[in-house]
Specification:
heterodimer, A: alpha+beta, Cytochrome Bc1 Complex, Chain A, domain 1, six-stranded mixed beta sheet, 15 helices, B: Cytochrome Bc1 Complex, Chain A, domain 1, 16 helices
């Protein structure tokens, strides 16, 4: 059980405090409720490009100083952009809490004056290289791009990837960066979580000190209504990619109930029965049976209308791709037969997984922000394991039967040149 | 308040690594246990002096494959039964092999430690290497070798090692061997390897977690009590050639690449080198942090790359020093030139006093951040065993970091960074990048064609 308290500053900034003195470090985590789902047509990748701009200095903090300050005290810092949010985080020795709050508050309140065409151009190049490195120069690198385009209709915000397209990144302008900041980077659109070695009263006072004078902004725009969509793709949609990969690989995905719904827990357990560990079905029936080199599956914690379940199987050099695909799909079809024993194993593994996630202050603070953002209550994190453990075999079976069938399936198949 | 002035730090809370309980069993097994973490978790690892550096060239990959195949079951339990026993209590397990050692690790809730630890012991002490299971792991290893031939980062690493160390040195080959050497391995080879290398006298068991160290040690002694010793064996040191001067550029042709994967470096130093700490400080300033010279130049000034870093590999013998990055194809030569320029300047003048102060402060400060979980702490303690470092090494480590002078850091950089001996590997589209590289000042350019990837 984690000690959690939640507060809201007058400007709307939500604050979550979770003290734990085990190690003299503190994790500072800031979620802005904006991600790739909020991007406008023709500007895919913009939220992520913007995230990079947040490290380019603010009115009182020169360019390149952010990382220098953090590194000089023995801290680590980074940020990530995701479909539903952008997070900024730093972990520092606990006596430097004030430093981390100072840095975060300055770019929330005074980022705009530091924006220049030069820094935008520089980070545009960095981000384009990030895309090349992770997607375009990598075997299977574009799998999620292909899968999302199959799984979601053109109007849906999950239709495109977080990284976006090179052309869209190229087209972004400085005015758009300014508008994006003014629209989304507001205290009333953010959650600040602290986990680690601090006194809650002191931390709250310091948060108010640094963030208190940043004015509340207008309510951010709501998501478009197109996010509601059935948990069915209306058939099996597929794409085949030949060449550029060493081994055959199948990605099979389904559109399933999103994170922060009750159905998600059954999905987590069903997914773990199928793909977590070496007693899972995919490992046993594909890998141990020598049909695949590796096989796994997971559920993304997305919130807008639906999320993505994806199962992945990579063949051995002599694996026939048809056989590989049939074996993988066979397990999805057969998931309605999950047993109580399998579910109990999945629950036991969930317990260690949850504990492992919580043992690091960086992850703990991020989860607190996540639960505050998506449930309106960080405290809910404490009940998470019990909710997973409460999933019965029949719940996992029902979830599988409802969502893992061939009317709700998108398949991306990669084949080596020579196959 | 004046927002331009960084806030002053609060009162520092002293912190030290918790005491490590050490014992040696009659069999020679080195048992180290420590209380760590507060999340009811325990990590246990068996660290074996059984790395790849001693496997003969025609058996390359044997240490890696043997360790992987441990998961294939014991004389008592099949692969599936073993997995079910551990996973029904939520335990995670796995083996990993490097040049110097093999680590078989277990992570579980503290309350399940008594049940899980004997299974870890059983995996190590009585593996079955049942033939069909062993062949499955072998097929997977061979498939990994196929995958590496299309992965730009793996291609760059493998080629750089080959060109720097040559075919005659273990460090010159891929850690896991290649398709030919792995394909020739049989279950009996794994049995022989275990009989020669996996013994209590060549191993440590490290337990870190939310558990009393005496209690943890008792469980280890009971679980590993029947595990015997093996012959003394080798030292684990690879015979490394002397670094000869001379620069060279090797372009590994990967048609259609939109980026160039770059490695630049040479033979470095052993982990046990006397000036390891000053060298670590120096490397942090060159390319070991976000604010390093290389990253500020290549990423933040030029936008050539998403990131670049430099490192000295930690091995018992002299592992590689290298810079690694991937850059857009059209700036390949410019990026190589910038990297070479930074290396030359750094080797000549060393880091500035400010850079040294920042690096010292970073390393001393980040220490508790890297000792947060039982897994992190167990890995560090395991490293002490692998490199024969004193048991109290980390007690004094932060003090020794803080004592590094700019002169000492510059001396370490000057001694161990060799601008005259840079080997550059570029994995990319040779037609696009090779012509420009001739003028990059990194040495004569040779182009290498890859054999077609076969499946």
């Amino acid at each position: 059980m984690i000690e959690i308290s939640e507060h809201t500053l007058p400007n709307g900034l939500r604050i979550v405090l979770a003290p734990d003195p085990a190690t003299p470090i503190v994790a500072v985590n800031l979620w802005y409720l904006v991600g790739s789902r909020n991007e406008t047509p023709g500007r895919t990748g913009f939220a992520h490009l913007f995230e990079h701009m947040m490290f380019q200095g603010s009115r009182h903090i020169p360019r390149n100083a952010h990382f220098r300050h953090i590194e000089e005290v023995g801290g680590s810092a980074n940020a990530t952009t995701w479909f539903d949010r952008t997070n900024y985080f730093a972990t520092v020795p606990s006596h430097h809490l004030d430093l981390a709050l100072w840095l975060e508050s300055d770019r929330m309140g005074w980022m705009e004056p530091a924006l220049t065409p030069e820094t935008l151009e520089n980070q545009r190049q960095v981000v384009m290289n990030e895309r090349r490195e992770r997607y375009d120069n990598q075997p299977y690198g574009d799998w999620d791009e292909r899968l999302q385009a199959l799984l979601f209709p053109p109007s849906h915000p999950y239709r495109h990837t977080v990284i976006g397209s090179l052309a869209d990144i190229e087209a972004a302008t400085l005015d758009e960066v300014r508008d994006f900041f003014a629209t989304w980077y507001l205290p009333n659109n953010a959650v600040l979580s602290l986990a680690g070695d601090f006194e809650p009263e002191y931390a709250l006072e310091r948060a108010l000190h640094w963030f208190g004078e940043i004015p509340r902004g207008p309510e951010p725009p709501p998501l478009p209504p197109t996010i509601r969509l059935p948990f069915s793709t209306g058939g099996t949609l597929r794409e085949e990619v030949r060449g550029g990969v060493p081994l055959p690989r199948i990605y099979a995905a389904a559109r399933v109930p999103p994170f922060a719904t009750d159905a998600f827990y059954a999905g987590e357990i069903a997914s773990a029965c199928l793909g977590a560990g070496r007693s899972s079905r995919l490992y046993d029936r594909l890998v141990r049976a020598r049909v695949a080199k590796s096989a796994s599956c997971h559920l993304l914690p997305l919130t807008s209308g639906a999320t993505i379940f994806v199962a992945i199987a990579t063949g051995l050099p002599d694996t026939d791709a048809e056989e590989l695909e049939a074996a993988l799909l066979g397990e999805l079809d057969d998931a309605s037969t999950l047993t109580a024993e399998e579910v109990a194993r999945a629950a036991a593994q969930a317990r260690t997984r949850v504990q492992r996630a919580l043992q690091r202050m960086e992850t703990r603070a991020d989860l607190l922000s996540m639960y505050a953002a998506h449930f309106g209550a960080a405290e809910r994190l404490n009940g998470e394991l019990a909710r997973l453990q409460a999933v019965a075999a029949e719940d996992a079976r029902a979830w599988s039967e409802a969502y893992l069938h061939d009317d709700n399936r998108a398949i991306v198949r990669y084949l080596p040149e020579t196959a | 308040m004046d927002r331009r002035i960084p806030p002053a730090p609060g009162t520092i809370r002293p912190w030290a690594l918790p005491p490590i309980r050490r014992a040696r069993l009659e069999s020679g097994l080195d048992v180290r246990t420590v209380r760590a973490g507060s999340a009811s978790l325990v990590t246990a690892m068996v660290v074996l002096r059984a790395g790849e550096s001693e496997t003969p060239p025609d058996r390359a990959g044997l240490a890696v494959l043997t360790a992987k195949a441990l998961e294939g079951g014991t004389r008592r339990l099949t692969s599936r039964a073993l997995a079910e026993r551990l996973e029904r209590i939520g335990a995670g397990f796995g083996a990993a092999t490097g040049w110097d050692s093999t680590t078989v690790a277990l992570s579980c809730m503290a309350e399940h430690f008594g049940e899980a630890l004997p299974l870890l012991a059983e995996m190590v002490a009585s593996p079955s290497f049942e033939v069909a299971e062993f062949e499955r792991y072998r097929a997977a290893r061979m498939a990994t070798a196929v995958q590496r031939r299309m992965d730009p980062a793996a291609l760059a690493a493998d080629h750089h090692a080959r060109f720097v160390y040559g075919a005659g040195c273990a460090y010159g080959r891929p850690l896991g061997g290649d398709r030919e050497t792995v394909g020739a391995l049989a279950a009996d080879d794994a049995h022989d390897f275990v009989a020669a290398r996996y013994g209590a006298n060549r191993a440590a068991v490290v337990v870190a977690g939310d558990l009393d160290p005496d209690e943890a040690a008792a469980v280890v002694e009971a679980g590993f009590g029947g595990w015997g010793a093996v012959g003394k064996g080798g030292t684990g040191e690879a015979a490394v050639p002397r670094q000869e001067p001379g620069r060279s550029v090797h372009v590994v042709h990967r048609p259609g690449s939109v980026q160039s994967e770059i490695r630049i470096g040479h033979i470095g130093v052993a982990r046990t080198v006397e000036d390891h700490i000053p060298l670590t400080v120096a490397n942090l300033a060159l390319g070991g942090s976000f604010s390093s010279r290389l990253n500020l130049n290549l990423r933040e000034e030029h936008g050539f790359t998403y990131g670049v870093r430099s490192s000295f590999a930690a091995r018992r013998s002299a592992g590689p020093f290298h810079i690694s990055t991937s850059v857009e194809s059209r700036v390949t030569a410019d990026a190589v030139q910038e990297i070479v320029g930074e290396i030359e300047a750094f080797a000549a003048d060393g880091p500035t006093p400010d850079e040294v102060a920042a690096a010292r402060s970073y390393l001393a400060g980040v220490f508790p951040l890297r000792m947060e979980t039982p897994g992190q702490i167990a890995s560090r303690i395991g490293g002490l065993f692998v490199f024969d470092l004193p048991g109290d090494y980390y007690r004094t480590w932060r003090d020794r970091v803080r004592e590094v002078t700019p002169e000492a850091a510059a001396a370490a950089a000057g001694r161990h960074i060799r601008p005259d001996a840079l080997c550059t590997v570029v994995v990319g589209d040779a037609e696009a990048v090779a012509p420009g590289l001739e003028g990059a000042g990194a040495g004569p350019v040779r182009i290498h064609e890859l054999e077609p990837a076969q499946s």
